[in-house]
Design brief:
There is one protein chain. By secondary structure, the protein is of the alpha/beta class. It has a single domain, classed as Metallo-beta-lactamase, Chain A, CATH 3.60.15.10. Helix content is about 15%, strand content about 20%. It has a 5-stranded mixed sheet with strand order 1-2-3-4-5, covered by helices on one side. Strands 8-9-10-11-13 form a 5-stranded mixed sheet, with no helix packed on it. Helix 6 runs antiparallel to helix 8.
């Protein structure tokens, strides 16, 4: 990605207008978090001993762990969901630091990996796991090849790392490694973890292979990059706004049965009522009823309560 518009922009409007004290990362490190407001919002969830100088691990509920990378501007969140017999890792992070040792500290159970989508910042640790399941789209297959350093070098620049210099990260050679899938998944695929069942919901739009993950019994929905408290990136060539509209309609219909929405960036838990506002918001953006601002030529950023939408200017109707 060439754009350095932080996903933190306009997220959690109330927190961003508060005077917050400077906060150091809770582990023994000289690194500074990229967004203190998001770190403050996440502090309510207990920090786990598995945390490292790069990863903050927070338990949102028993058996549900957010693995956060707060020292890079994207503030990626991967999720470990632990059942009685198995565990599932929903996304494997940026790949700048190994996530597998963190996962192994949290569970000794067999771990299956699936990805909310296959942008590089969510598949970085896939290569370290034997049991990776993936969608069978052409977009997914192409992304399995990884990405060379030249295409991700901007992601380890001083700006992207918020001025941090993480020990062990070679910014001159970092790349997204190739990986393979042991099995394929699709809409409706279920994972029985033992005392917890998870269901895959295909939610294309952000990418062709985007999925969400639903725990119906516990009212939990993991949304990947389809929804989070920040600028939702919908400007890439692979984005399909028609598909995104349908996907958001589908997720919004689940809101009455949800207790938590668990995204892949910034803040670990968002009230379901915020997700319910997305279908109207994207319609208002596309029809031009909500205009927003122009952060850079060819793009439009439109704020809403609890999130914002970043789209190509071509996607916005000239007049409502």
């Amino acid at each position: 990605m060439s754009l350095f518009l932080p996903r933190t922009l306009l997220a959690l409007g109330l927190l961003l207008t508060m005077k917050l004290p400077a906060q150091r990362a809770p582990t023994a490190t000289a690194l500074e978090v990229c967004d203190r407001a998001h770190t403050a919002a996440n502090v309510r969830y207990p920090l786990q001993a598995a945390s490292t100088a790069w990863f903050h691990v927070r338990m949102v509920e028993p058996g549900v762990f957010a693995i956060i990378e707060p020292y890079q501007f994207q503030e990626v969140i991967s999720w470990l969901i632990v059942g009685a017999q198995r565990a599932l890792l929903f996304d494997s992070g940026l790949g700048m630091m190994p996530i597998k040792p963190v996962v192994m500290k949290l569970t000794s159970l067999p771990v299956t990996v699936i990805n909310s989508h296959t942008h590089f910042d969510h598949v970085g640790g896939n290569a370290d796991f034997a049991d990776v399941r993936a969608m069978s789209t052409p977009f997914t297959n192409a992304r399995m090849a990884g990405r060379l350093h030249a295409s991700v070098a901007s992601q380890v620049s001083p700006t992207a790392l918020c001025g941090n210099r993480p020990a062990g990260l070679d910014t001159t050679s970092f790349r997204s490694r190739p990986w393979s899938a042991a099995e394929r998944i699709g809409d409706g695929t279920r994972f029985d973890l033992g005392a917890r069942s998870l269901e895959v919901i295909a939610t294309p739009g952000h990418t062709p292979d985007a999925i969400s993950l639903l725990d119906r019994a516990n009212g939990l929905l993991w949304t990947g990059d389809s929804f989070y408290a920040g600028p939702i990136w919908l400007f890439m060539p692979e984005t399909d706004l028609d598909a995104y509209q349908r996907s958001m309609d589908r997720l919004a219909a689940l809101v009455p049965s949800l207790r938590r929405v668990l995204p892949a960036h910034n803040v670990v838990s968002v009230a379901p009522a915020v997700l319910a506002r997305v279908p109207k918001a994207i319609r208002d953006v596309r029809t031009g009823r909500a205009r927003g601002t122009v952060p850079k030529p060819g793009q439009r950023l439109v704020p809403f309560k609890g999130f914002s939408i970043l789209v190509s200017a071509k996607a916005v109707r000239a007049k409502p």
